[in-house]
Predict the structure.
Amino acid sequence: MKIIETRSAPNPRRVRMFVAEKGITIAYEEMDLMKGALRTPEFTKLNKFQRVPVLVLDDGAVIAETMAICRYFEETHPTPALMGTGAKQRAQVEMWNRHMELGLMFAVASAFRHGHPAMAHLEVPQVKEWAEANKPKALEILKVLDEELGERQFVAGDTFSVADITALCAIDFMRPARITRPDGLKNIERWHGEVSARPSAKA
């Protein structure tokens, strides 16, 4: 079993953090997406969408998409629970992870893919106006998150979850996306410091 990734990308980092929190040891194979490694016939056979991460199981089965991979490990290694326990908590984790993924992460990734010159050969067409349009969207989500974190320790409640992993990876990726985090978000600062101090954050 192995995970194919590009280490510098945010979605593979989400999986590495998830796996580290679970205490799972697994092999990683590096693919340089900047050099077109994901567009080769060999990789395309594994994932026709040409994205990482990809989990290859011992029986040869392939699971792509970050959350699908995390779900696999949640089911095979249920402790510690990172997707909630019980119907209510699972729904709350799912809700906040989607907010962080479809709201914050998508906006940050769009700003990076459409705004960074190094991505021009991969994001065709690269629409710089779309990059700029997504920067304020990311900041809007941050303001909401800061308010929510004033009421609880973690993104989805009082327990660390995959929603915190998604939020951390998105916020840290703001730097290469050239989005400046505003001053004064005290609750995010507190949360970011605590979550960044977890060993998994360095996975």
